[in-house]
Every structure is written in C-alpha cells, then in structure tokens.
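Before the break, one more example. Copy the sequence into your notebook; we will annotate it together after we see the structure.
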Amino acid sequence: MFKLFQGKKKTIEVVSPVTGKVVPLEDVQDQVFASKMMGEGVAFELTDDIIVSPTDGKITLLPESKHAFGVVSKEGLEILVHIGLDTVDLNGEGFTSLITVGDEVTKGTPIIEVDRTFIKNKGIILTTPMIVTNSSDFEVNIMDGGNDVHASSSVVLECTKK
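Here is what the structure looks like once it is written out:
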C-alpha cells in the first residue's frame, strides 16, 4: 500500500562519452573490466578525440594522468570513464583535460581531449570502458542501439535506483 505513494522511480539515461563503436564489457582485454569487478557498464572503440560527460553531474575524479574521469549525478549514479587500457603509464601524455575536479557538467560537456595517434603509436589499446561503479545500487540496463554511437546523443545505459 505504501508503494502507491512512493511515485515512479526516475530512470537516468546515460549517453555515450565518445563517438565510435560499442564493445561489450566482457570483450575488453583487461580482466578487471571484463569481469565487471568494478561494476556494470559498456566499452567503446574511439573514432574521435573528444571524450564528453555521459550524464549531468559533478566531476569527482580526474587523476594527474588524465586517463580517466569520474562523474556523479544528482541521483547518486557514479560513472567512471577509463580512456584506453594501461594509459595510466603515459603519465598524462596524449591527454588534455578540459575541466577540473568539482566542476558541474551536463551531458555532452567536453571533458578530455585525446591524441589518438600519439597513443596508438605507443602501442596502447584505446578501448574505453564506462563503468557504473555503484551498480549494486542501480538497475543498469545496457541499451541495444546498434554498434555505432555518437558522443552525447546515443543512449547506451538506462539506470534506475533500486
């Protein structure tokens, strides 16, 4: 009876942070991501150099190496975007940060610019996982919108607070 007064749970649409192709998380060549140890999500192969925010929220993580960022929505959804595999070893080379920790962002706000040619020339894989790090608190539905995605416009996840 009390559920009647709780209202409908809000679903948060999470957009692709990149333009490129979708890769199932299980296919990522890194066991930490592929095993979903860090949480549920999806990965991408980049075809552009700009990484954008996948949701409205606050930037909570941007390491000095600039290879990843975290954003938390007002609903508490925590998203980690990890650009490439083993990119932390570049110590920031090949990445330009366009924001700082604490910045409020909206879906599609440019966060990091990537020099894909430089990184590929180093032999580093640019597969980019996007993880809901608190997926135990949310129902995470991976959208099957096809293989090609566009930064800030292709919905790739729908998340509803449990």
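Residues 116-121 form the longest helix (6 residues). The radius of gyration is 16 Å. Try to locate both features in your own notes.
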